[in-house]
Amino acid sequence: MKDTNVAYVGVDWASATHYAYALDAAGQKLGHRSFPHSGEGLVELANWIRSVTNLEPGSVAIGIEVPHGPVVEHLMDAGFLVHAVNPKQLDRLRDRFTMAGAKDDRLDAFVLADSMRTDLRFYRFLEPVHPTIIELREWSRMVEDLSAERNRLANRFRHQLWRYFPQIVDLSEDWARDWILDLWELIPTPAKARGARTNAVARLLQRCRVRKWTAESLLVHLRAPPIAVAPGVTEACVAHCQVIIARLRLVMEQMKAGMKQLERLSSAVADLPSVEPTAPDTRCDPDILRSLPGVGPIVLAALLSEGHDAIRRRDAEALRALSGVVPVTRRSGKQYTVVMRQSCPHRLRTAVYHWARVAVMHDFHSRNRYSAMRRRGHSHARALRSVGSRLIGVACAMLQTGELFDKDRIPQVQLE
């Protein structure tokens, strides 16, 4: 806790109104009131804090439940020292003041202010996030949403093909590939397949660089006896597929643009100012992380955006907790259980999961660790979490030394 904090303000945020409660260093009430969620309301909130505390913003500590959002950003821009606390911790702190389970906005704001005065160690001081990290985080989330939308549309497209033209379903496991969509537009029905020309199909396969099928074998497959459907089903399915493909192509174009943005912004992270001065020959974080097995553009963007603070500090323990790879231990008397950590950012957990999954396929040491965990009886997901924990430790060690990943390096355990 900083010695300059001589006033404490708790802000209970909501969608329509925010409630603020101000205390001095001795715990005496300075004032409390609500503010609407609007530009004028947030300006009024900052001015009210200045007026009731009669202090400079740098001497006022503000507690809030969320580490992001317009309220946090406005208060940080105004110069206040903003701190965030986990909502579950706030729920426990509320029990200090009422055992009856009472809860309202005024009480929550008061608990935030008073617990900051006595237990500031439970709060996390929020520092301004660089605009590049904010933009990278947003693009990373957009690409994830687009990927999920692509999968949904591809599954709908497959379902329509399954209804009347299952021959196309058997051509690939990914029904959103460009050549599958182009082929359907060329041959949308079994009747069209019977009249399709071999040269047209050959040009399509050559343009899309498909080598699994030849034009002749593909037409033989598509001309297999079709499914007998009721009158009007084929026409309805074709109309539905046309709508789906139009949306699917748009999503795929947006994904391509999103991937280019991820590459650009991930590389731009290397130019951000460092917390501590580094040696002139130390490599930037993106290059080091990109050299690790299993780290692609999507995983790299998630690590740099969702776990930026931990990576910047080279804090392996914090990054493990954020990604959910370290378990939670519960011990009481003779009972002892170890369960998976649930309280962690979903996007970072997913990124580390795929990081470990791909690393097992390409890295010898990761594959050995995975096999050892499986032999001990652990599940597939538990073994991947163990691999992810090791990779996070390796990544943070590499970030400290500035070295790139060397797959041929002998582990230190084998050297002893």
Could you characterize what this model shows?
Helix content is 57%, strand content 10%. The chain folds into three domains: 7-125, ATPase, nucleotide binding domain (Nucleotidyltransferase, domain 5), CATH 3.30.420.40; 134-262, Helix Hairpins; 275-415, no CATH class. A hairpin with a 2-residue loop joins strand 7 and strand 8 (335-339). The chain has helices at residues 39-53, 70-77, 87-94, 105-118, 131-164, 166-169, 178-186, 190-195, 198-208, 215-222, 233-268, 285-290, 297-306, 308-313, 316-323, 346-362, 364-375, 380-401, 412-415, and strands at 7-12, 17-24, 29-36, 60-64, 81-84, 124-125, 328-332, 335-339.
Radius of gyration: 28 Å
Gap from first CA to last CA: 43 Å
Number of domains: 3
Can you tell me the overall shape? elongated
Helix content bin: 55-70%
Strand order of the largest sheet: 3-2-1-4-5-6
Spans of at least 5 consecutive residues whose pLDDT stays below 50 are 278-282
The DSSP helix count reads 19
Order of helices and strands: EEEHEHEHHEHHHHHHHHHHHEEHHHH
What is the typical, i.e. mean, pLDDT?
Answer: 89
Class inferred from helices and paired strands: alpha/beta
Query: What proportion of the residues form beta strands (DSSP E)?
Result: 5-15%
Main sheet specs: 6 strands, mixed
Give the total of beta strands: 8
Q: Would you kindly provide a brief summary of this structure?
A:
This protein has 416 residues and is α/β, with parallel strands linked by helices. The chain is 57% helix and 10% strand. The chain folds into three domains: 7-125, ATPase, nucleotide binding domain (Nucleotidyltransferase, domain 5); 134-262, Helix Hairpins (Orthogonal Bundle), CATH 1.10.287; 275-415, no CATH class.
